[in-house]
Design brief:
This protein is an alpha+beta fold. It is built from ten helices and 13 strands. Helix 2 crosses helix 4 and helix 7 packs antiparallel against helix 8.
Length: 376
Amino acid sequence: MTTFAELFGREPDGRWAGPGRVNLIGEHVDYADGLCLPFAIAQRTVVEVARRDDTRLRLRSRSEEGGFDGDLADVGPGHPEGWAGYVAGVLWALREAGHAVGGIDLLVTDTVPLGSGLSSSAALECGAALAVDDLFGLGLGGSAEGRRTLVAACRRAENDVVGAQTGGMDQAASLLGTAGHALLLDTHDDSTRQVPFAPADAGLTLLVIDTKVRHSHADNQYGARRASVEKAAATLGRASLRDAELDDLAVLDSDLLPRARHIVTEIARVRDTVALLDAGRLPEIGPLLDASHASLAGDYEVSCLELDLACESARAAGALGARMTGGGFGGSAIALVPVDLAGAVADAVRAAFADGGHREPDIRATEPSAGAERVA
């Protein structure tokens, strides 16, 4: 296993970790001024970083090919390509925002499973952003408001440098998450609120089912969904679909209607879920998870056979509710399960995948965890 010292001829200044995230509900609405309810998870991407006295970037990973060795001045839209763009883009975005940052040496040592729907890209961005904040004394990581500035830089890195037109949900969860809570994110004004979400206290657990089907957010499918939503809003004469009602959608053509219907109904499901969690009625959110998946699979068409199978087999074995999580076209599903049925549900999902000739899924329980932090 290659060490930082072997790669760069010196020891790192420290190690930082950015967590992945699970989105409990509120999928594909973060770019429509909607409401999302993600939380940070224990699975983390870890980076070892050392500050440089020049503007050179040397970026390497133990788990992925490629990297980058070049000057910060050469970073911009579309460059560098691959995973290195997520890191280099953060420095570029911070510099574009007027922050004094320079070069770094960086090694990615551990990663959230890539393409799993748990936002490995945001985990990488946020771990790198916190490292840069510490090493260059930007003073942003110590407050919620400062972390929102880092969220914006990470989002701009993904949108402008990598070219993935995602919203800011993933980065907000990774930087602002707290244990025992989900993060209610209003993407209209980027306001946030911590919502109690502790499944274990209710005798439940949340299983994450990684289907092993990999996806990319920078592909045409994801961009096409976002374009449809924006076109639907423009057709209705609105800046976004945030406050649209179902009756308003009747004027849309058959291509735009189902996309817009998902956005409107998903935002409503987030509101209903938050109301139940605030009232201490966590077990009752199961049907909302089921309805979210049905909308994502039907109206939004971002599910796949394996995600549908994971949800169906989990429900049949006793899950209170299940849905895909993340951008879709692969990745992970989540299932809310009574603790005493967790093993049986996991076994049933694995059996269903084996019977269908699919790869064995990776299944693990998860709980809301703390956000990005320095770990050494």
